[in-house]
Amino acid sequence: MPTEQTTGTTNLVSNIIAHVTTLVRKEMELARAELGENLNGAATAVGVIVAGVVFTLVGLNVIAAALVAALTAAGIHPFWSAVIVGGVALVGERHERVILRVSSARQR
Description:
This protein is mostly helical. It has helices at residues 4-73, 78-107.
């Protein structure tokens, strides 16, 4: 026959289990909500970076086209104007790599 003390202890243990279960469930819901917010923020950041890259590439193409047009207007054949602008872009890119390599070596 259960005594009043064992019944109280049983109720106390079942209340603790119920509260812990509720706490774990609420924490899982909170973690899901926070993860969703973080993923939305990351997706927005990636979208902004992609848009920035696209606009930068378009801007560089417009500048290159303007340089080709200027060289053509100066009397150089359009083909050679494009070759000159492309060559300068390649040389500039190589120099940029060298500069980045030297600066990263200095930081070490």
